[in-house]
Amino acid sequence: MLLVYASLALLLALLQWRFFVGFQASDDANYLRGALGWLDHVPYVGDTHWTLRHTLTLPAALSVSSLGLSLFSLGLTTLVYFFAFVAVQVWGLHRHLGFAPAACFALFAITTTGMVVNATYLAPDVSELFFVGTTFWLLVRALTPGADGRPGTRWLWLAAGLLAGLAWSNRQTAAGALLACG
What is the pTM of this model? Predict the structure, then answer.
């Protein structure tokens, strides 16, 4: 089982490396402008909805300030969100449905063309999936009775609410998925 998960993680890394885009000079240029705005002066108040997507602009600013301005530092934010999204989903699926569904999901998610490419440049799609998917699993955990027969703690509910808020602030289309969770 561990060997399968390790192989899937390696496949994910190799696919991201092979099909790495980094920058498209489309919406990602606006996210970069927001990130550079944060590096230029704090607090930065963006002038478009793209520069106000702090779930992308702040991590991108951290990446650029740490690694310098490069294609890799620009794509790193979304790559981290994608790795985290797959890890959280695999964890939740493995915990509740078992190894086979979790491994199949991982294989499907990491080989889907749109995901492979979208995860390599600044775009809200992958981060939205991360926040919504993590919110879902926190809600499942909060609703699942523990050993004492009681549902999850208030901290799980608070974390789920915080992540749901970040999902919505990342992109408002997350509201539909969040309504399905609740």
Answer: 0.88
